[in-house]
Structure formats: structure tokens, C-alpha cells
Amino acid sequence: GSTSVPLEPRDADTLDFSHFEHDEALSLEAAEVAAASNASSFAASLQRRSFSVQSMQNYLDGEYKEVKEAARNLIQTHKVFQMYTDLNMQQLRELTMKWVAEVAANTPVGLQDLHKNPAKFFAFIEALACFDGNLLTKLAVQYCLWGGSIMNLGTERHQHLVPEI
Fold it and tell me: In the chain, which ranges are E strands?
């Protein structure tokens, strides 16, 4: 059977979080991480410079916070979004198509947003890209390449298709 893999945060050596709000829970967690990892440079840096995770999230999400939260919520709450390490190419393609179908059925953005508000559209896609690059590629082909071609190059008789893409 396939093995599900939990996602782990990446380490960084030089981060300055001193301008974010203080968060006691993060400070305690950083102290535990530092102790457990023999005070690695990253954990030691976090211990000295704690910050509010929510403040960082708000800063990174910016103007389209709700759209990015919708993407993260979709990934976290729909069981189809699992990561596997031992799939062959055909199985990975099938799984990626299931992900695309789930996104299409539950997206807060549409092809019209690509034309009217591209920043909103790409904020949603960006948040999904953090989950899996294969999903990003399929969505880019579905919406930007194929859907964008219909929307921008199609004739009037094709325009009824745009809301369905």
C-alpha cells in the first residue's frame, strides 16, 4: 500500500522575526526544539526571537487572506488530499486528477477571476502550489492555458463555456 507523509517545516539559518508580535507558545516550543536538537542555529534563533505565527501568516497572506485560507482549508479538510511516496507515474497522474476535480468543485475563484482579478486567482493557486507542484501544473494548464485560450481567443459561441471551466 501507499504511505502517507506528513509535511514538515523547512529549516532556515538566518531569519529576523523581531518585528512580529511575541507568542509565548512559540517561545516554549522553540526552547523545546532547541534542547532536542542540541541548540541548532535555527532553533536557537527562534528561541531568541519569538514571534506571532498569526502575525506572520497575515503578513504573508496579504490582501487575499480569505482566498488563501480557503485553499489551505480545502487541502486540510478534504480526505483526497494525501501525499504518498511510493506511487508509480500512472497512480500519481490519477491522484493529481482527483485533486484537480476536488479543487474545481470547491474553488472560491473562477476563470472570470483570471481575467477580472488575476491577483485573487493567483493567490488561490499560490496557496495550492505549496501543497504539490503536480497540482499546480494541472491547474495552470486547465485554467490558464486551456481556459484562458477559450476566454481570450474563442468566439462568442465559446463564451458560454467560460463559467464552466
Answer: none
